[in-house]
Amino acid sequence: MDGRTRTPALVAASVAAFAVGAYFGTRGLAVARQAGFADLAQGFPTGSLRAGVTLLPLAAGGLLAVVLVAVAVVDRLPGWPVALTGLALDYLAGGVAFGRGAGIVPQQPLTAEQVSTVLAMAVGAGLALGGALSALARLGPPRRWPVAAALAAGLVVHPGVADVFRLAVSDDYQGVERAWPAQAGVSVLAVAVAAVLTHLDRPAGRAPAGPARIGPVVVTALAAVLTLVGLVVRWWVVDVFRLSPDGLAGPRRARFVESVAYFSPVAVAVLAGLVLLGYAYRTGRVVAARWVVLGFAAGPLLFLGLRLIFTGQRSQAYLVVLAGVAAVLAGASMARLRPGLLPWDAAGLLLAALAVPLAAPAIQAELPGTANLVVSLPSAVGLGLALGFGLVLASAGPNAVPAGRGVIPGRDAGAGPDAGTGPHPAAGPDAAVGPHPAAGPDAAAGPDTPARTDNHAGRVDGVDAEPGPAAGVLALGAAAATLSALALAPTLLVGLSTAPAEGVALTVPVLVAACAVVLVLLFGFGRAVDRIRRDLRAEAAAGSNT
Predict the structure, then answer these.
(1) Which one in 26, 111, 248, 456 has a CA-CA gap of 20 to 30 Å to 74?
(2) Sign of torsion, CA 480 333 338 4?
(3) Do 17 and 132 touch, CB atoms closer than 8 A?
(4) Are strands 459-460 and 463-464 parallel, antiparallel or unpaired?
(5) Distance CA 147, CA 491 (A)
(6) Is 463 helix (H, G, I), strand (E, B) or coil?
(7) Residue 376: is it exposed, middle or buried by C-beta count within 10 angstroms (0-12/13-18/19+)?
(8) What was the pLDDT predicted at 215?
(9) Which phi-psi region, left, alpha or beta, contains residue 305 (left: φ > 0; alpha: ψ -120 to 50)?
(10) Phi, psi of 415, deg, nearest 5
(11) What phi-psi label fits residue 65: left (phi over 0), alpha (psi between -120 and 50 degrees) or beta?
């Protein structure tokens, strides 16, 4: 699919991206939910954990993140066919799980069927989202934004999509078992259509794929291992210190054990996120770093979902879904037209974070009739604004302007095969950041401009000959969301059952607010560096004229 992709193919890709986003929110994050549920159902930290039941969802979550990134960065793999393979794999595994009760039961030993089902779900989710990101990166930069916006919308409103399918097959919650096969079937059909149209629109001449880039895969694997090891150490520390040597547990010891159990996952998640953030900034500068920070913060928020309940309140649920989609479109439009105006990703995260404490049972009891709407509406608007803005900005590629003054992505220097050697007339003075992309892969890599690593094979008919770098940046943010949701799952589930005054319920909102502050700092850093570079260019131009 090239930069001149016909409208039917682009529409089909957008529909498929929405389907994959909704699928990943429902099934991909279910792996993290299994990890949190295993903690909660086994009475941790006051009770002991079964090793197999606890380790399986943790290992599956790490595997999901690694598979996602590995699929996205390999240029030789087709995007939508790989996503179709992942959906089909999970469809078969999901049918086995629902039909034969193969879900994890924390109080019982694992069976081979349960292990295979969870691992297939993780691999299928990784293939689906990784393939969708690869297909997104293969589009010409000016044509990526509708597909990126559709993917973000699917992620945001995935609870509503799941409930729509449940209502389509049954009028009560007994239809959940049949809802997933129905959603999977529709998703498979949408992705299959996109795969066929993409193949038909494939450019006649295409440069050979570049060498495989294993950097993102290695870094993601390291972050996944750190997450797994950190949570295992948490489990070991709690198990060792739960009782004193004489078999007693005093109040101070109990408070220490609970603090380690509830708050240590935050340290584990932050450590893994810093690993991904460091690599992202090294390869993609400010734009990539902002996307990874946004993904890290969005992971626990997507884990919580929008708390939609259609039964008896369908009008409210439909309002929330529409508000979420509208917020995604608004964020995508700002990223497309005025990316340097304000850090809308940070604003969206703050709004979504404010809604999390409102989900506590004590507050819900004080808001009869509108309790779900009070939580769901700001969550949908905040998440939609943040993900719509962040994903479209990150998908714009190396030519995106992280902090410029309203330069339209895809219209700056090097945005297309006919871009020429100077900036686009509408791009303004900020577009001429460095030499022409043909000068070399690193010639235009300044402190706030993503390194040009995608010029090994050039461009063919407006399409990136090597979509791996762009897809790798996108996949790093998705991996950050997956691993943060996995690590924070126990804290999230406990926080939902406690009052905000107890502290646990405020852990995730404070963490998300901190990420919003980091996004604002990165935005300001990019603006400052951009101003310095403009001044240096102006001085150099004045010197050459004299």
Answers:
(1) 26
(2) positive
(3) yes
(4) antiparallel
(5) 33
(6) strand
(7) buried
(8) 87
(9) left
(10) -75, -15
(11) alpha
Q: Specify the DSSP element, H or E, that contains 48.
A: none
Angle between helices 112-138 and 30-41 (to 10 degrees): 150
pTM tops 0.85: no
Q: How many CA atoms lie within 13 A of 408 on its CB side?
A: 12
Q: In this predicted structure, what is the pLDDT of residue 505?
A: 66
Task: Please name which of 290, 488, 301, 299 lies closest in space to residue 380, comparing C-alpha atoms.
Answer: 301
Q: Which residues lie across from 459 on neighbouring strands?
A: 464
> Tokens 């409102």 belong to which residue?
358
The H-assigned helical ranges of 24-78 are: 30-41, 51-73
**Alpha-carbon span 179 to 177, nearest angstrom:** 6
**In b/e form, how buried is each residue of 307-333, taking b as 16+ CB within 10 angstroms?**
bbbbeebeebbeebbebbbbbbbbbbe
Residue 181: CB atoms within 10 A of its CB come to 16
**How does 381-418 read in b/e, with b if 16+ C-beta sit within 10 Å?**
bbbbbbbbbbbbbbbbbbbbbbbbeebbbbbbbbbbee
Of residues 531, 198, 514, the one with CA closest to residue 349 = 514
Tokens of 325: 């989609």
CB-based burial, 492-506: b 16+ in 10 Å, e otherwise: bbbbbebebeeebbb
CA separation for the pair 263, 251 (Å, rounded)? 18
